[in-house]
Amino acid sequence: MTSAIKYIGQLRCESQHLQSGSIVITDAPTDNHGQGAAFSPTDLCATSLGQCMLTTIAILGKGKNIDIEGATCDITKVMNPAPRKIAEIICDLKFPMNYSDEEKQFIEQTALNCPVALSLHPDVKKTVSFTYG
């Protein structure tokens, strides 16, 4: 088992990662009856895409001596109103260093093929930009 989730009322859930014990609270967004006091489940889904991209680049880049420390990713989640679902995730990846063309190609292909990107439904549009240096 990966996690344990408990509904704690007022449109909030508490999720515990069983291996580490860390806890995440989610709240329904303000546009869907929530208080917006924490990540919503769809926020976490969109955020996971950027986290997975950076983590996968770091893991696979290690063997190629590609250091991405200090890299960031700004996420914008766009919701479809009916049916309510994530329509688009915009990822703006920024890398503080310059890389060779070959390294950039590796970074971009790795990001676009990370496990979360490959797991999302094809209808979820993924708009990804890369900025270097």
From TrEMBL:
Gene3D superfamilies xref list: 3.30.300.20
InterPro entries reported in the protein's UniProt record: KH_dom-like_a/b (IPR015946), OsmC/Ohr_fam (IPR003718), OsmC/Ohrsf (IPR036102)
Pfam family for this entry, one: OsmC
Protein's recorded name: OsmC family protein
Species name: Elizabethkingia bruuniana
